[in-house]
C-alpha cells in the first residue's frame, strides 16, 4: 500500500507535472478528475490524451499508470459563486480575494480523493497545490494541507500522506521540474496538450501553451515559461 498513489489530475500544467512526478516515484498510480461545473471544463477533455502520452514516454511509467476516475461534484457551483463556475468578469472581490476562488473546493476534492483512496488501497494523495505562485487561495496553503492530512487520517483511521511536490516552487521551476522528469518531450506535451486558462480558451498555441493570455492563470503560466526559457538559454 505504501507505494500506491492517487493523483488529483485536472488536465492542467501543474497536475500533469505532478502525475509525472508520481509515476517516477510510486509503483502504482491512479488519477482522479473532478467535474464541478467549471468554466474551463475543456481541461477534462485533455486528460485522456495526456495519460496516453505519459504512458508512452517511459516503459516504467506505462507499467505504473493505473485506472482513471472522474467524480461529478456539481453542487460546488450551486453553493459557491465564483468566476470559475459562473459567467462573470475576473476581478478582486470585496474581501480582497480573487473572485476565481471557489470556497471549499480543495477541501472537498481531498475528502473525495481520500474516500476513493481508502477503497482502492492508495496511501499517497498527490496534488498540485502551491504556496509560492498561487492566486491567494487559502486552500492551497501548506498549513491547510497539513490540517487536512490530520483530519482525513483521524476521520478515516488511515495514514494517508498528502504529497504537494509544487508547494515551494514557482512556475518557472515547475517547467524545469517537468524537463527533469521527462525531458523536452514532457515540456512539449505540457505546452501543447494541457489546459490552464480560466476562460476555457484553446485558440492559438502560444510559446507557453493554449489560453486567452489575459486571465490570471494564463499570465502566471506565460511569465513562468518566459523565465524558464530565459534560464535555459543563458
Question: What can be said about this structure in brief?
Answer:
The protein contains eight helices and seven strands. The chain is α/β, with parallel strands linked by helices.
Domains (count): 1
Mean pLDDT: 90
What is the N-to-C succession of helices and strands?
EHEHHEHHEHEHEEH
Strand content: 5-15%
The CATH top-level class label: Alpha Beta
Main sheet?
5 strands, parallel
**Helical segment count:** 8
Low-pLDDT stretches: none
How do the strands line up in the largest sheet? 3-2-1-4-5
Helix content: 40-55%
Net shape = globular
CATH superfamily: HUPs
Radius of gyration: 17 Å
- Broad structural category: alpha/beta
Task: Give the CATH topology.
Answer: Rossmann fold
* Number of DSSP-assigned strands: 7
State the distance separating the first and last CA atoms: 44 Å
Structure description:
- The longest helix has 23 residues, at 171-193.
- It is built from eight helices and seven strands.
- The chain has helices spanning 13-23, 42-57, 59-64, 75-79, 105-120, 142-156, 171-193, 216-233; strands at 4-8, 28-35, 65-72, 124-126, 161-163, 205-206, 209-210.
- Helix 1 crosses helix 7 and helix 2 crosses helix 7.
- The chain has one domain (4-171): HUPs (Rossmann fold, 3-Layer(aba) Sandwich), CATH 3.40.50.620.
- The mean pLDDT is 90.
- The strands form two sheets. It has a five-stranded parallel β-sheet with strand order 3-2-1-4-5, with helices on both faces. A two-stranded antiparallel sheet has the order 6-7.
- The protein is of the alpha/beta class.
Amino acid at each position: 500500500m505504501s507505494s500506491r498513489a492517487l493523483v488529483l489530475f485536472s488536465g492542467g500544467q501543474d497536475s500533469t507535472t505532478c502525475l509525472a512526478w508520481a509515476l517516477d516515484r510510486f509503483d502504482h498510480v491512479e488519477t482522479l478528475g473532478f467535474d464541478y461545473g467549471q468554466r474551463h471544463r475543456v481541461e477534462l477533455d485533455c486528460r485522456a490524451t495526456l495519460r496516453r502520452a505519459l504512458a508512452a514516454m517511459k516503459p516504467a511509467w506505462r507499467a505504473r499508470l493505473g485506472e482513471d476516475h472522474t467524480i461529478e461534484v456539481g453542487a460546488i457551483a450551486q453553493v459557491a459563486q465564483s468566476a470559475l463556475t459562473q459567467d462573470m468578469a475576473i476581478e478582486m472581490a470585496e474581501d480582497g480575494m480573487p473572485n476565481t476562488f471557489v470556497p471549499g473546493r480543495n477541501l472537498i476534492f481531498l475528502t473525495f480523493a481520500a474516500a476513493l483512496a481508502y477503497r482502492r488501497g492508495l496511501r499517497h494523495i498527490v496534488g498540485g497545490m502551491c504556496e509560492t505562485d498561487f492566486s491567494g487561495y487559502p486552500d492551497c496553503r501548506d498549513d491547510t494541507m497539513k490540517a487536512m492530512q490530520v483530519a482525513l487520517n483521524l476521520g478515516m483511521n488511515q495514514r494517508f500522506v498528502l504529497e504537494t511536490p509544487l508547494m515551494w516552487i514557482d512556475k518557472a521551476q515547475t517547467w524545469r521540474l517537468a524537463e527533469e522528469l521527462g525531458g523536452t518531450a514532457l515540456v512539449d506535451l505540457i505546452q501543447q496538450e494541457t489546459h490552464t486558462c480560466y476562460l476555457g480558451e484553446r485558440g492559438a498555441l502560444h510559446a507557453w501553451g493554449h489560453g486567452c493570455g489575459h486571465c490570471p492563470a494564463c499570465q502566471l503560466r506565460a511569465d513562468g515559461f518566459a523565465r524558464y526559457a530565459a534560464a535555459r538559454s543563458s
